[in-house]
Amino acid sequence: MQLRFYANMRTVTGTMSLDVDDSGLDTFRKLLNYLVARYPEAAFHLLDEFGELRKDAPVYVDGRNPRLSNEGIDSPLEAGSVVSFFSPIASGKINVEILREPNFRRRE
Length: 108
Hints:
This protein is α+β, with helices and mostly antiparallel strands. It is built from four helices and four strands.
């Protein structure tokens, strides 16, 4: 599996990419835990106060947002997956997630 880091995440990890060969990292949540254990400073950029993935932290598994899958951040990972980590979005939540919130009201 290849991890790719952009912007502040690249600064935190000190690398553009990291190849990980660990069959135990079979879900995105496990990968997050691994990443935070290896780079403790990454927790600020990736996790909220409850230890969950921040809603404003853009991450993609094979080009797809894992939050939008049925399993959420417990989505399975493949050995050949490419996982991309970007810095949190300064303006707030990712638009698609806002649209999925139960209290969101669309303009008519």
